[in-house]
Write a structure and sequence with these properties.
single chain, about 220 residues, alpha+beta, Glucose Permease (Domain IIA), eight-stranded antiparallel beta sheet, three-stranded antiparallel beta sheet, 3 helices, about 15% helix, elongated
């Protein structure tokens, strides 16, 4: 029987990645109140609620899909779908995530993590020519039991919070399990040719709930 390792998931309604920011805003609100700076105290109080929303960590009902399914690892909008030639992958799907989207990252399929590469860097606008080379990014390879590989690359853009990761290479993982956090950025999803896409440009996706498609058997 296949054994699945338990990740250090944060099951609180707020992601642990936001605790420090919420604490800073809370302390600022108290200090401003003590100094009788009511306007700044009010702004800090409003900021607390905004941060709670940005770092929300909702429980989601996990959809039950057939074996070989791949779900979205992020919330956001599909801004492009590209067919690749002369590549080990057949499709490249790009998803844009903003501050209003949930930043929790979730595994697209059952399988193993065969690569984890986290690169610290800038947080330039995605439209900047050097953004893909200089920005902070995270690249992962997920391989299922049929040895199909899905590559996921997260690229951080104009965000005040860093990319966060809670998994390691060679770890087994369940589809929809949390594995990190990204507040505002782009996600590139690379899928092999033996795959049937279930999405279109302009679709809104929810991590763990939106079906990207299925791997198909090759005769």
């Amino acid at each position: 029987m296949q054994q699945w390792q338990t990740m250090k998931n944060n099951l609180f309604p707020i992601s642990k990645n936001g605790f420090q920011y919420i604490l800073y805003a809370f302390i600022a609100s108290i200090v401003f109140a003590i100094l009788d700076l009511e306007f700044f105290s009010f702004l800090s109080f409003v900021l607390i609620f905004a941060l709670v929303y940005f770092f929300r960590n909702p429980e989601r009902e996990i959809s039950i899909f057939d074996a070989g399914s791949v779900v979205s690892p992020v919330d956001g909008e599909v801004i492009s779908i590209e067919e690749l030639s002369q590549s080990e992958y057949g499709y490249k799907v790009v998803v844009k995530s903003g501050y209003m989207d949930t930043g929790v990252l979730r595994a697209p399929c059952d399988g193993y993590i065969t690569k984890v590469a986290l690169q610290n860097g800038a947080r330039l606008s995605f439209s900047t020519p050097t953004a893909q080379a200089l920005n902070a990014q995270l690249e992962l390879l997920f391989k299922n039991e049929k040895y199909n590989t899905v590559k996921v690359k997260h690229i951080l853009t104009r965000s005040f919070a860093p990319l966060a990761l809670s998994i390691f290479q060679s770890q087994s993982i369940r589809q929809s399990s949390r594995y990190g956090f990204m507040l505002k950025g782009y996600t590139e999803i690379y899928i092999p040719n033996n795959f049937r896409l279930n999405i279109h440009k302009g679709n809104r996706l929810k991590a763990s709930q939106s079906l990207l498609g299925f791997f198909i058997a090759i005769p």
